[in-house]
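ok so I'm stuck.
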Amino acid sequence: MLLSPDRKANVARRATAGFTLMELMIVVALISVLAGMGVVQYRNQVMRTKEAVLKEDLFRMRDAIDQYYADKAKYPASLDALVAEGYLRAVPKDPITDATDTWQIEQAEPDPNNPGGELGIYNVKSGSDATSFEGTKYNEW
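replied:
not stuck anymore, here's the structure
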């Protein structure tokens, strides 16, 4: 059976119109790879932001402890004492553990002139034992 020239053009046009399944699969695979790379970059940036917030919170709390010691000649008994005395507005949330009660506190050494005196908080660290992008643990900062 012979096809007319118009019919041949119609068949040829239908054969070339659209995408093949292979072409669609390649495009979907490329989009998936690019989306996966974007998600990884997003998660890394979120963690880097949390690390920056942690560094800032630690700096602010340590500064408040130092100011408390300079004003009262003793270290605060708790982080809540810093809030009660107005050195901090609130105890910040640890951005890594996402809680306010996981901060690790270091007690000050006893005063040799007053060995029975009240010990206070000398330093504060994160309560997370996860490893940062720098390769150190958060609770060592």
